[in-house]
Amino acid sequence: MPMYKVRPFHGAPGAVRAEQLPTCMYPMQNLHRGPAAAAPLHQEEVDPSLLALESRQEEILKRLYELKTAVDGLSKMIQTPDADFDVTNIIQADECAPLTANTADLDSMLGKDYDALKDIVINANPSQPPLSLLVLHSLLCERYKILSAVHTHSSVKCVPENLLKCFGEQTRKQSRHEYQLGFTLIWKNVPKPQMKFSIQTMCPIEGEGNIARFLFSLFGQKHNVVTSTLIDSWVDTAIFQLKEGSNKEKAAVLRSMNTTLGKTSWLGGNELTVADIVAWCALQQTSSSNAVPANVQKWMKSCENLVPFNSALKLLK
């Protein structure tokens, strides 16, 4: 008789089965059973931020491809001689409001100030009078009721009589609140013209060209992008090359003006713009006005036939 009796693990129907031992240390799910078996594990492991980054990268690559295609097209057009085009047709097709149009809304351009008079104050050096600003003042007087004034700063010892009366004889016949715009010119020892229309809060606008752009915007003319860019270019060219440049630069500008004015009546197209005013004044204040090409001479006479130009011309005599 045995001392210890143990029921067998195998054989009989009621025998206890042996425990199934593992065949490896770390069991893992089989990834090679097929797409259905691998999908749940893939969805659990991928970070949503990585999916968003991947989508963003694909969008950027798509945009870069589109930009590259556009640049390649422009490059082929520029390198092709037949691709040159004349912007004169675009300028002539531009629709702009003439200077004789209805009065622009000063509140929308200068801001509403509770019915107070909007006063533009300009500091200028009498040794270099900004002739274009005087022409623009005369043009603005044809559009608005302007209260004009001329003063002399203590930094200036002597101002010629014609500059003290550059706005003509100013007789104030109405109360201040009945005017639409105030225009005050102060002859002051400053390196370049400065302008403010909001004395307390505004940084000054400096430079004759920049002030001329601002004043001309009060006429409310609208241009397309091409014409606006050409007008700005002519203003800068007149100030920095025609007025302040070397003789070689002035000659090049006159040739370019002659070509442009052979196609259009004015530098900006078929209507007078700030480019004509600044360029004409620059020519009058330099020796370049003595010898100019034919088209430029014709254009200068057209300018001088207008009263504001003619009045400004008298200041130079």
Q: Short description, anyone?
A:
The protein has 317 residues and is α/β, with parallel strands linked by helices. It is built from twelve helices and five strands.
Describe this structure in words.
By secondary structure, the chain is of the alpha/beta class. The longest helix has 32 residues, at 48-79. Strand 4 and strand 5 (205-206) form a beta hairpin. The chain is elongated, with a radius of gyration of 39 Å. Strands 2-3-1-4-5 form a 5-stranded mixed β-sheet, with helices on one face. It has 12 helices and 5 strands. It has helices at 35-45, 48-79, 88-93, 106-110, 131-141, 161-164, 208-217, 225-243, 247-261, 274-284, 294-304, 307-314, and strands at 118-124, 146-152, 181-187, 194-196, 205-206. Helix content is 45%, strand content 8%.
Question: Characteristics of this structure?
Answer:
single chain, 317 residues, alpha/beta, 5-stranded mixed sheet, 12 helices, 5 strands
What number is the mean pLDDT? 78
Distance between the termini: 148 Å
Contiguous low-pLDDT stretches (5 residues minimum) are 37-43, 79-93
Helical fraction: 40-55%
Radius of gyration: 39 Å
